[in-house]
Design brief:
Blueprint lengths: L1 E5 L27 H16 L7 E6 L8 H13 L2 E7 L2 H5 L2 H8 L3 E5 L21 H20 L3 E8 L7 H14 L2 E6 L14 H15 L6 E2 L1 H8 L20 E5 L4 E2 L20 H10 L4 H4 L19 H18 L11 H9 L3 E3 L4 E3 L2
Parallel strand pairs: 1-2, 1-8, 2-3, 3-4, 4-5, 5-6, 6-7
Antiparallel strand pairs: 8-9, 10-11
């Protein structure tokens, strides 16, 4: 489970595929109730880690753009987290690190692991930038913005605070061999963990940049072969491989099953409320109803589709369902089913005697996992304590 701290939902950019769409652009910063936020963070820690936990704990600053939070407020929150020995991550578009270099000093002072959202070299990153409602992007303006972001990413890397990169795959960076080769080189050069997410847009003019399921699979396959030695640090490859091996605790949330009211993410809001995953917000913030251990959405969809790989992909993220209707599988399911089968074949080529979870009947697998059992890929059986 992940704990997000969303101190505001405003942003200095308005990217073509942001899942909060243009609703966050130029939004006035929220009034932050610091004391309620502090109490909510401790409650989220308790819910996630349990009473009396003494190990490492982490909260991720999120947004909007988290570094738009007033500096005085941000420092008070960071001091509070440090006092309680809570490690801090952040997910940012990283433009502000170019405009205000003192933010890098702040990140170093509080040992913040900064994740940057960037789609490759500047010319591949131009869907991140500005658009207003239904107006298409200004490529020249967004290229200048992307150049500043790229400079900030390189400096964060030099200063040792770049924690990882989230890249969205689309026709500007993952369509055609030239683009894919360039993106693969970018991934290799950065030497940090990556998350490669598929693009979908809520605005009509940007849909032409989305990849089809066939194009998305080919992009994932190409990047995998060009970056294979790094696959243990790149999602979704790392997560799918771990899932196939039965390592449920080491996979991304959307491979574990969730719905709008029961997610693997706790979001602490600016007013001290606790909510679910930020990807489910849309026009409404859903109040918390944390994951109870039973995969309700999986059961409903599996009863309809009876997919032999259903327990592997779990029908993916409900926020990616057509029209945001979690009763349907993700719009990217066909691409990921191909990728799962491809990676399973890859693993078996290296380890012919291994037993992956795609050998297990889906409902049987889920029932054993819900009982706390784990799959042993070398013995081909469940281990239950």
């Amino acid at each position: 489970m992940t704990i997000l701290l969303m101190l505001n939902n405003s942003c200095n950019l308005s990217c073509a595929y942001c899942f909060l769409s243009s609703s966050t652009f130029k939004v006035e910063p929220r009034k932050i109730d610091i004391e309620k936020v502090k109490k909510a963070v401790l409650e989220a820690i308790r819910l996630h880690y349990g009473e009396g936990y003494r190990g490492e704990r982490e909260v991720v600053l999120h947004g909007g753009e988290p570094f738009l939070t007033p500096r005085k407020v941000l420092i008070e929150i960071l001091d509070f987290l440090e006092e309680h020995n809570i490690r801090v991550g952040a997910q940012s578009n990283c433009l502000l690190f170019s405009l205000d270099p003192s933010l890098i000093d702040l990140a170093k002072r509080y040992r913040i692991s900064v994740g940057c959202s960037v789609d490759g070299y500047p010319e591949q990153n131009i869907l991140r930038g500005f658009y207003i409602h239904d107006k298409p992007l200004d490529e020249k303006l967004n290229l200048r913005i992307s150049e500043k972001i790229f400079d900030a990413v390189k400096r964060l890397k030099r200063e040792g605070v770049l924690g990882g990169i989230i890249t969205v795959l689309h026709k500007k960076n993952a369509y055609g061999v030239e683009n894919l080769e360039k993106l693969s080189r970018f991934i290799t050069e950065m030497e940090v963990g990556f998350r490669l997410n598929p693009m979908y847009s809520t605005v009509e003019w940007a849909k032409k940049y989305e990849l089809s399921n066939d194009e998305l699979f080919e992009a994932y396959k190409y990047i995998f072969h060009r970056t294979a030695p790094l696959s243990g640090t790149i999602s979704p490859y790392r997560d799918i491989i771990n899932k196939l091996l039965g390592r449920e605790d080491n996979v991304v949330c959307w491979l574990r099953g969730c719905d709008f009211y029961r997610s693997h993410v706790i979001t602490v809001l600016w007013d001290g409320r606790l909510s679910t995953c930020d990807r489910t917000f849309g026009q409404e913030i859903y109040q918390i109803g944390f994951y109870s251990g039973r995969n309700i959405r999986f059961r409903a969809l599996q009863s309809i589709y009876r997919d032999p790989l259903g327990h592997v992909h779990m029908y993916m993220c409900p926020a990616e369902s057509p029209n945001g209707d979690w009763r349907y599988p993700s719009r990217f399911l066909e691409a990921f089913k191909k990728l799962i089968s491809y990676l399973a074949m890859y693993i078996r080529t290296i380890f012919p005697e291994i037993h992956l979870i795609d050998e297990v009947e889906p409902m049987k697998y889920i029932e054993y996992v819900e009982k706390g059992c784990r799959w042993d890929p070398w013995r081909g059986e469940f281990i239950c304590q």
